[in-house]
Amino acid sequence: MKNWLIGLLLVVLAAAAYYYIAVYDPFAEETLPPPIPTVAIEQPKPQPEPVLLEPVEEVIGVEPELEIVDEATVLPPLAESDEWVLDSLSSLAGEASVMRFFVSDNVVSRFVATVDALTSRQVPGQIMAVQDLGGEFMATANEQPDTVIRNAEGDPIPQYILNPANYQRYEPQVEMFEALDTQELVTLYRDYAPLCQQAYVELGYPDGDFDARLIEVIDSLLSTPEISEPLRLIKPEAFYLFTNPDLEALPAGQKALLRMGPMNAQRVKAKLREIRTALAE
């Protein structure tokens, strides 16, 4: 059994990746997409167990070496992979961490759907593979904004500044992400990519290539602009939005990196560059 999926999930740390990222976040949107479609796909056939060849009779007084056939990786069916995946995660990260951070159903499908959504406007909470970051979102009221922003009725919209204390909520996930061995992570991803590919097909991409999509999403995250000034927000209704329309128009993954703070975003980008290079080899 391979401890592989935690690396794949952490690739989307922004994702979150992610982590992580929009579940119960004050930035989250109310609109929910239709459920992920399911497609009946033939499950992979189990591979043979390793074969240990018996020694042949001694020839000219030389004992021949035993030959062992390498064991092929046997994947569980996608629909039955949750227990296997969560058990692998628990052996690597600890059961308490898995129970705290990860959703326990449709883990692979959620991961694939999250990756695919990172270049969209939002990552709906119902597809996320990880749970709430924890902690309370903090924004400080901006009593004297540079520009007054009004709603359709002409009333001023409340404005805020993102409190840097929020960045600490992401630090445990960022530290875990940095600690992963990049080459091992990519090797394990390549070994177990068929489950992700199957989930991608079931998501509605019968001719899609999840490997290529993963690279595309990583490139999108790496192109996230670096913002040193305080992030200014408005709250026209129940959710916070970026005051700067250019920032608000960014895809969900890039906005997630901005919300985790400049230092955390730089650390995540550095790891993503390593992963991107290893995937391209």
In brief, what are we looking at here?
This protein is mainly alpha-helical and 281 residues long.
Q: Can you walk through the features of this model?
A:
The chain is mainly α and 281 residues long. The chain has one domain (5-55, 76-135, 164-226, 252-280). It contains 10 helices and 4 strands. It has helices spanning 5-11, 82-93, 95-101, 107-117, 171-179, 182-202, 210-222, 245-248, 252-259, 262-280, and strands at 139-141, 159-162, 232-234, 241-242. It has a 4-stranded antiparallel sheet. Strand 3 and strand 4 form a beta hairpin. Helix 2 packs across helix 3 (95-101), helix 4 packs across helix 6 (182-202) and helix 7 (210-222) packs antiparallel against helix 10 (262-280). The protein is elongated. 33% of the residues are buried.
What is the fold's blueprint, element by element?
Elements: H1 5-11, H2 82-93, H3 95-101, H4 107-117, E1 139-141, E2 159-162, H5 171-179, H6 182-202, H7 210-222, E3 232-234, E4 241-242, H8 245-248, H9 252-259, H10 262-280
Antiparallel strand pairs: 1-2, 2-3, 3-4
Helix pairs in contact: 2-3, 4-6, 5-10, 6-10, 7-10
Low-confidence stretches: 1-45, 47-71
Q: What series of H and E elements makes up the topology? A: HHHHEEHHHEEHHH
Ends distance? 25 Å
| Average of per-residue pLDDT values | 76
Number of domains: 1
Strand order within the widest beta sheet: 1-2-3-4
Say how many strands there are: 4
Q: What percent of residues are in strands?
A: under 5%
- The protein's oligomeric status is single chain
The number of helical elements comes to 10
Q: What Rg is obtained from the alpha carbons, in whole angstroms?
A: 23 Å
Largest sheet: 4 strands, antiparallel
- So what's the overall shape? elongated
Portion of residues in helices? 25-40%
